[in-house]
Design goal:
single chain, alpha/beta, TIM Barrel, 8-stranded parallel β-barrel, 5-stranded antiparallel sheet, binds 2-acetamido-2-deoxy-beta-D-glucopyranose, signal, hydrolase
Length: 412
Amino acid sequence: MKSFSALLSFTAVLLALSGVEGHQPIKASGKVASTWWASWHASDFPASKLSWSKYNRVVYSFAETTPDVNKLDLGDSGDQLLKGLVSAAHQHNVQAAVAIGGWTGSRFFSSAVATPANRTAFTKTILTLAQTYQLDGIDFDWESPVNQGIGCNLVSPHDTANFLALLRELRAHPLGRALTITAATGINPFAGPDGDPLTDVRAFTDVLDYIEVMNYDIWGSWSDTVGPNAPLNDTCAPPADQQGSAVSALRAWSTAGMPAHQIVLGVAAYGHSFRVAKKDAIVNGSMVAYPPFNASAQPAGDKWDDPAGIDECGNDEAVGGLFDFWGLIQAGFLTSEGNRAPGIIFRYDDCTKTPYVYDATSEIMIAFDNAPSFREKGTFIRSAGLRGFSMWEAGGDSNDILLDAIQSESRF
Ligand SMILES: *[C@@H]1O[C@H](CO)[C@@H](O)[C@H](O)[C@H]1NC(C)=O
Ligand SMILES: *[C@@H]1O[C@H](CO)[C@@H](O)[C@H](O)[C@H]1NC(C)=O
Ligand SMILES: *[C@@H]1O[C@H](CO)[C@@H](O)[C@H](O)[C@H]1NC(C)=O
Ligand SMILES: *[C@@H]1O[C@H](CO)[C@@H](O)[C@H](O)[C@H]1NC(C)=O
């Protein structure tokens, strides 16, 4: 944060003196094989561990918005980590982007785009970031315009319109035109002033290269029952269990005017855990779909999971309960090949194409994605003509079991 802010004013001078010469951004065409790299996991999963040959874009996460429109916060050691990531990416001819926002980092988006003066300042902040770190792309991860996210985001009914105005201003600049500009979105189109999804998002197709639909966290600890983290399909599920999926997200976005080739499917290398009593989990010898769970006994996830504590808004937050794919293996739910471990009860849901594991001793059930789920998603990307995939997060996989599965079917 500090070093970036210091660099900022220095670079602003350079920009003014020299225009925007220097690094020519690598431009994206064709299919997208992308992943988000979480900077706070860099000590366990440094840039050197990325399977560079299997991606054509990597996204540093996150540059958080701050109360000052002239500043973005790259996180602890962000300056050094981002330089390292970009340099490794460029050695492998992979695009390097930065995601602005994230769940905790979207608090000040609304004010940063609220007025023409702030949009001009924010545009300059973003272009300076891109110039300073030789970025090829900017990924807007605003969670979420118009509607509240973490609980203390600034929010305005004009957020989506102001976001569009910012994107237009960014594109009016030569460097902004050269960058690959994307947005990580929910499964429904951007919200209009009333908080409901817009029915027409065509204006965004001119200013965004593509969107990444975050088709995960569809069910979790906040839900009424256990359900899939990242359903491929839900139109085949009982009506009460149709909470969204890749299939319904594609329908919603394309009906609003976002063409399939501008939609990248966000995929999850992690799952959500639930505490499910044995009598609810197993009936007549089979694992039940959508069983009730005990929210007061949320299991902890793996070592990357967020412990219980106070969140950025000052509110109490329960333990997250997330298991990365490697965490499922480490905790003994799966073998090192990613299959059901001995003693674990397993169910693969044929509608959502996602598996569940259950340990009857600890009464922990986990809904996640395995290699067959990723293969199905790869097939869907290819057959529906989507632009590609982006995985949260780079370090969540184990031995590329998931990455290889989606690559094998989406054919990049
Ligand atoms: C413009 O940005 C500044 C922070 O740099 C903020 O204090 C101000 O409230 C913003 N304006 C609006 C209307 O949100
Ligand atoms: C989703 O489910 C519907 C209804 O069962 C089915 O017609 C459709 O083929 C499924 N789509 C995919 C991609 O599985
Ligand atoms: C379990 O088996 C009993 C007896 O065959 C049957 O009446 C009941 O409907 C079954 N329950 C479920 C959830 O399948
Ligand atoms: C749910 O978990 C809490 C905390 O462990 C426990 O006190 C409670 O009895 C559980 N409820 C049920 C219905 O099992």
